[in-house]
Amino acid sequence: MTSGGVFCKTQINLFVCTWHKHLHSVESIKNRQKHLMFQTKQKVAELIPYLESFSHQNHELNREVEKLKQQLREMKYKHRDSTAVLQKKMLKRLLEAEEKHENDDQSSHKQRINKPKSKQTQVADKVKAVSELEKKIQNYEEVNRETDANDTLQKFLTKENQYTEKITQLEQTNKRLEDELKAERIKAEDDDRERRKSVVTLHNRMFKRFLDAEEESESMIIALKERVQLLERELYAARFKTEEIDKKRRESISALHSNMFKQLLDAEADHDQTTKNFILQIQQLRLQIKALEIENSQLKKAFLVALGCIYYYYEGEENKKNSKESQSQETQSEAYMYICIYVYVLFATTEIKKDAMIYYKQAYEMEKMKTQYLQNQLKNNHITLRDMDLGFDPTGNPNAVVSASASPLPPPPPSNDLVEAEIETETEIEIAQKYEVQLKEMSETIKQKEAEKLKYEQQIKELKQQVEETTSGGVRRASEIHHSMFSSLLEAERDYEHDRTEWTHKELQMKHEMASLTEELNKMKDAAANNDKTLRQSIAKLQDDTWKHLVEVDEGNKQLIHKIQLQNQQYQHELTQLKAQIIHLETSKLATIDQCNQQINLLRDAVRVMNQ
């Protein structure tokens, strides 16, 4: 930038210097042109009075020539009229004389024929006639036509001499003016030649300077073009570099995207497989839980039935000892045992139904409470049995309790034998102990089943949690992968945008430099073109003005010379015509004089003959 700016400043300074020189040369040319125009104007101003005097003299000469022409015309008319009148009078007189002579001859002949007169009378008549003729001739001669013609001729000759003198003077002045015009024309041609030489030299100098300025401007233009080409090459290289970087970035982003998409698809496939496996495990565990619940409910029902039977059996035994109403209580206990068995059978038959699971779930809590209550009662019964005396049931069946655990227990048959009561009581005690053991085992199995159920429920919860974790974890992992991909893409986009902004900024700077250089170049071109145009226009205008002025002056001089030449030709033609007319008048005058003399001589001869 600094080297380019310094170069542009130096070029601008050179251009300003050349422009000032050019303006100075243009001003000198204008001053020279003004000086030439002033000189030409001075010369024209000097020539104007001569031309005015010459035109005034020509005007006066034209007026005098017109006057002479008018006088000539008048003289011609007068001369013609006088000669015609003279000829007419002479012819008239001659005709009258001839008529008289003929009349006299006829009269004389008649007189001779009729009355011959004497010779004296005839001679007297002749003398009278001759005397009359002589008088007429004298009278005619007294008119003094010859003297008048001589005077007019003398005047005409004097005027002709004057006119010839004036014409010679005019010819001399015309010749003098023609010589002056020739000298002025030669001088003007010399000035024009010098001016043309100066204009040619000036034009050559200006053209040389213009060529030098064009060479300088072309060198500047070439340097600027080279600078622009260099900047364009740098810009192209930068663009190519950015395109390569962008291409690599896109390839890396596409590879990263494909890898992450592949990983995402693999993770989704694994997640789907694990979810399927967990769903199968959950279904299996649910089936196991259902089976355990069914088994647990059956055990609980059997346990409840057994407990109920034992409870009512012991209560019946105690009531037998205490009151007489033992039989009614036995029947009640038996009825209750049958009701329990019926309920158990009813539940055993309806457990296959669809709503058994719902009932078991609802009755599970109630059964827990009942089992706790029964356990408490069993503890109390154990305590009471230890404190009680031994009692025997004569109609006791030792297999009743055992059968009740597997299937619905029938009521024990009543026994009234006292002998067998102790044995039965012992057996019942053993059975009760066994049954207690079985109850303990059943309670332990129930606890184990409950523990297994809790375990299975815990496993189900864990599996559900794992399923939820897998479902949410897959989404989370996918979101994490997507977030990482998006963050990497954003980082790549940020880097790309940063690089792009840097390159665009550099490109804009280079474009701005190119635009400024092109503007400076265009300004320099426009300035050079305008200077050249103004210079050419000024030179052309100056040449046109000077040439027009010279052409106008030359045309004016030519017109004046042509007018003078035409006037001279007219004057010469008029002079030749006047000379020819003078010669014609002289010849006609001499001819008329000769004719008059001849006629006079004839008349004299006739008079003499008549006198003789």
Automatic annotation (TrEMBL):
Composition-biased stretches (Basic residues): 109-118
Keyword Ion transport in record: no
Region Disordered, residue ranges: 97-126
Basic and acidic residues: bias regions: 97-108
Transmembrane domains' residue ranges: none
Keywords: Coiled coil
Residue ranges the record marks as coiled coil: 51-78, 275-334, 432-473, 561-588
Protein name as it appears in the record: Viral A-type inclusion protein
Organism: Reticulomyxa filosa
